[in-house]
Design goal:
Elements lengths: L1 H25 L1 H23 L3 H4 L5 H51 L1
Helix pairs in contact: 1-2, 2-4
Length: 114
Amino acid sequence: MSNNSSEEKAQGATSFIIGVTRGIIRERNARRKTMFVLIVVAVILLASGSTFLQSVLNSPEHAAWFILFWLICAWLTLTAMLLAIFDLLVVKLEARRTQRSLREKLATEKTNHE
């Protein structure tokens, strides 16, 4: 009975993550806010890892923490970069669609006036 409950929780969490991801990808403001938050968190981690966490992260006993910490920083930065590239592609696509629409509108107005 608990196995079925844990499967339902996993499916619920998965569907929630997929829904949030779809929302971030589809909504321009959500995507840009997410990029901003990711960069801010990565910069805060970078600053803290280079200053007051440096003694903890550089000790040989905490090599796993060092690797995990910098992997998280890299993951956050890479995610923000990929979202930025995706946002750039979406903006270019929207500009092409708008340009095409304006060309068609001008063409139809030109033929109507002749």
